User: What shape does this take?
Amino acid sequence: MTTTLPIKISFSLPDGWQAAPPDEVGAPGVAFVALHPASMDGFTANITIAGQMRNDSASMWQIADESVRRLQQAGSVEVIKKADAGTPDAPGLTDAPGVVQNLRLSTTLRGEPLELLQSQVYLGMEDVKDPSKRVVIELVLTAKPSQLGQVIEDFKEFIRTVRPADESPA
Assistant: This one.
C-alpha cells in the first residue's frame, strides 16, 4: 500500500525519469517511485522516496542500520560505504543532516538470482517549533551494477533538489 510522507517535500526529477504508482511497480510502503526506462535490462533502475516521523533518539547511522536489517530479510546485504552527508566522502548532497549508505544486495527476481546496488540517503528534518519531533526522509536509488554508471549522477542531481515544501500561502 502506498504511503504518504509525514511532511510535504519538493524535488525535481532529472530528464529521462518517469514517476510510477508505487503499488503498480511492486514498491508498497513508499510514497514515490521514479523509473529510468532507458536503463531497463531485466530490471529498471529506480528512485524511491519514503519517510516517517521519528520521536526516538536513534541517530541517522542507527536508522541506516535498520534499513540493512530490513533488507537482510530478502537476501544478503553488504555495506560498501557509509558516510555522513555533507562530508568529503559524500560532499554537497544536501544541507540537511543525514547519512549516505551504499549497499550490494543479492536477491532474486522472478526466481532468478539478481545482484543490485543501492545508494541510500537518510535526511533528518526537525520541527522548528518542537525539536523533539523529527521526520526522516529516505531517498534510495536501486540499480544493477551495469546500470549504475548511467544513473548515479542523476540521483545526486535529484538529491540536491529535495527540500521541505513551502506551505505558506502564495
